[in-house]
Write a structure and sequence with these properties.
about 300 residues; mainly beta; Elongation Factor Tu (Ef-tu), domain 3; Jelly Rolls; 2 domains; seven-stranded mixed beta barrel; 2 helices; 26 strands; about 50% strand
Length: about 300
Amino acid sequence: MKPFESLTYTNARGESITFGIGSKFHVNVQKDVSGISDLKNTIYSTSSMGQHGDTYAGNRIEPRDIEMSGKIKDPGKDTQLSLRRQMLKILNPELDGTLYYNYGNFSRKIGAKVKESPRFSHRGLSQEFSILFKCLDPFWREETDQHVDMASWLPDWVFPTVIDKDDLESMIYGHREITVIVDVYNAGHVSTGMLIQFKALGSLTGPELFNLNTREFMKIDYTMQADDVITVDTSYGNKSITLLRGGVKTNLYRYMNVDSTFLQLDIGDNLFRYNADSGLTNLEVTVNFAQKYLGV
């Protein structure tokens, strides 16, 4: 069967509703939805007396509006009213939500709030509706974030296995990655922030992540103990540095090195080197990030 485009909205309570050609909430995504690919880019410029044209100062991609129209696909009035009440319950403007786009094996998601509750109208025996979503972060993401192990121990023990008692003391259970330079590839359409995790296997001081392309770095002037995890969020609006020790979270913002930068991932290749003032072999580093897209 030929796949069709569909949109599924899931609110903060986990309640979902799917819009598509095969749904009771009938929507032809190709024809009846706007805003899933088009964006508005505002360009800022300056000018002075005698200047021909303007000088570029910057730009801003505006929030995304996604508007859809469709109809409740059931001829029975009682069922129509029940489905209409279901829509009103799930599409609650008070709740945050996520909009998922699906076409065959291709999927993307975007944070969305209901800007205008469903507006209903009758046309013959049909119950028609229209909905407007506001996406303050205008970029689509993959359903699963990217995960990169930059410094970690890799397992060498697999099952099934046969162990000779004479080999117990010399048997290798895992090995540590030798390289301290790792390429983090951002296949998205725009630069993006990330979650950097420094994990201590033993005592270490001054964990650092250095960007070889931009010469910027993020360094925490702090002594870590075994099992400590420091998480640095570099995404816009969520910048934070947190220590997790013994199940207790502590704000480490004041321990950020004064020359540090909340690193961003540029489009394409990003070469990073990890380091520590002492105890480098006790350091594990991982990076998580969302690849962001202008449309679907």
